[in-house]
Structures are given as structure tokens and as C-alpha cells.
Amino acid sequence: MKKSWRILLLLMISCLCCSIAKASNLPDSRSGDFGYKRLPDGTVQITKYYGKEDSIVLPDTLGGYAVTGIDDRAFHNCIVLKNIAIPDCIIKIGANPFTNCSSLENIWVSPDHPVLTYMEGVLFSKEERKLICYLNASKEQEYEVPSGVRVIGDYAFFDCDFLRTVTLNGEIDSIGESSFSGCDNLTDVYIQNGVSSIGKKAFFECSGLAEINLPDSISYIGKYAFSDCTVLKKVVLPGGLEKLEEGMFCNCISLTTISMPETLKTIEKRAFANCGLIRKITLSRDVAFIAVDAFDGCSLNLLFVVNQNSYSAQWCKENIMNHVYPDTFDWLNETKNESK
């Protein structure tokens, strides 16, 4: 009898799991100007806006279901949208829903909203202490992230063309994926000690960024984080960083100076592809892997300073790269001392 009950219970759990999975994998539906998707809890999130209105109030129900969320980039490229009101029922918001909404001037959020708050052109999550969205239409050239914010959300400053200077407070722990991607006029980013991670493509195509100092608190930097920053000349990497991810500085065609940390162990593929102005890179003995194409398109005069009998030295030999050992020129100093 007990065995039968166990089997029945397992079947019930299995059916419940299947129902949840089916609900979360249902194709998007449409009601009026809004696309929406069922969530496992029986509510829905807005996935797309098809309308052309310049001012809208988000609905609290769609297709007979309660609306509780907005999906990643749901209003992307709604270039005529100027004003939007978010009701208190919407408590879950994905990556910046308003990317490339170049006319959006105001987001109305009730002061009693349980999760969100809006202040001077910026939407925040109080619950997650996250900056969700900095409006594309803002013409401010400088912005200082207020104290209390701990997360810069994915795509938060995406394509903010007027922005030139951003100062991140010392409480911020993470900078999200593509958070500053496409900010063409961004020239200065001040990152305080305390940030632990920078997401994939965080500063992709920031074509005005010439120099950046990354504090030692950073232990992870995502793929293509600084790719295509075409005027970037100097980078100081975090002292404890162990891995340079794929394409991290790919196509940084002006990069001349980069300081590699002693802790570095891995350089992934195309990390410095097409960085033709770098002339010297010093690698520590701890480096244990360098992808074959990590330095594709770099100058034939690129010189590696590596330790004798190290992995890096062997890699240079196998890939016919110019290299010297740290003590290569010590004999010159010895000659000077002898002549005194």
C-alpha cells in the first residue's frame, strides 16, 4: 500500500513539473498592442509592444491573466514612445526593457510601488538595489550612480549617446552585460574598488573611451567586454584577475599599453585580436594556457617578456612569436658595474 502511494505521489509531482515547464515554454501570445508570455506562477509578462502611441499605461491584465512582469528589452526600438506608466502590479523586470527608445522622456512609477522607483531619468529596483534603465533620451553628459545602488543591470546605459562621464559608487558589486555598450561619446568611467564582476560586452563599441583603470577587487570580466573600443590606448587590469575571456580587447586598434597581472593563468581566443599597436606584453610564470589565435592580427614586432622554461616561453616558440626573458639584458648592467 505504501509503495502505491509513493508511486502516485511521484506521478503527481512529475505532472506538476511538466505543467510548469509547458507554461514557461509556451509561445508568445498577443492581446491588442502587447505580446505576452505565461509564467510558471500563472501570471504573464509583457514581451513586446506593437503599438505606435507616444504615451501608454501598461495593462494590469492580458488575455485574462494578471500582468506581473516585463521581459528583457520588451520595448526595444519603440522610437516614438515618450511616456510610459508602470502599475504597481508589475514587480519583475528583465534586462532594460527600453533600449533604443530614443524619445522616451518619462517613466511614471507610483511612490508606493513595492519594487520600483524612478528618479531623474533613471529607473531603479529598490528590492535588488539595481539600476535598470538610464533613459536614451537624456541629454545629460555626466552621471554619478547614487549611493545604495549595488548592481548596474544588463543594458542599463545601452546606446546612451550623450553620456560622457560616469562615476560608479563604491557600493556597486557588479556591472551587467552590455550595460554601457554603444555609448559612443563615453570618455571617462570611474570604477571604485568593490566591483567584483564586469559582464559580457559591458563596454562593447564605446568608441570614445581612451583609458580605463580596473580596481583589484574585480575577479571576472566577461567575453568581448572592451571589444571594438577603437580609441582605447591604456588599460590597467585588476591585480587578482586570472583569466582574459574570449575577445576581451578584440579590435582595440589604438591599444598600446596593457598591464598584465601576476595572477593571470589563461588568455582565451582572440583576446587581443587586431590590437596592432601593442609592442610589448609581459607574462608571469603562472600563465598555463594561451589560445593559438589570442593575438591574431597583432604586429609582427610584438615582443613577449616571458620566464625561461615556462608555458608562455614554449607557446612563443611553437607559434614563432618574438620573446625575451626578464634577465635578457642583465649583462649590460654587469658591464656597467665592471667599468666603475
Helices and strands in order:
Elements: H1 2-24, E1 29-31, E2 34-38, E3 44-49, E4 55-57, E5 61-62, E6 65-70, E7 83-86, E8 92-93, E9 106-109, E10 116-119, E11 122-125, E12 130-134, E13 142-144, E14 151-152, E15 165-167, E16 174-175, E17 188-190, E18 197-198, E19 211-213, E20 220-221, E21 234-236, E22 243-244, E23 257-259, E24 266-267, E25 280-282, E26 289-290, E27 303-305, H2 311-318, E28 322-324, H3 330-339
Parallel strand pairs: 3-6, 4-7, 6-8, 7-9, 12-14, 13-15, 14-16, 15-17, 16-18, 18-20, 19-21, 21-23, 22-24, 24-26, 25-27, 27-28
Antiparallel strand pairs: 1-2, 2-3, 5-6, 10-11, 11-12
Mean pLDDT over the residues: 90
* Number of helical regions: 3
Q: How far apart are the first and last residues' alpha carbons, in Å?
A: 99 Å
Q: Strand portion, in percent?
A: 25-35%
Low-pLDDT residue intervals, each spanning 5 or more residues:
7-11, 15-24
- Helical amount: 10-25%
CA-atom Rg in angstroms: 26 Å
Q: What general form does the structure show?
A: elongated
Major sheet: arrangement of strands = 10-11-12-14-16-18-20
Number of strands: 28
**Structural class, from secondary structure content?**
alpha/beta
Largest sheet: 7 strands, mixed
Which properties best describe this structure?
seven-stranded mixed sheet, alpha/beta, 12% helix, elongated, 28 strands, 340 residues
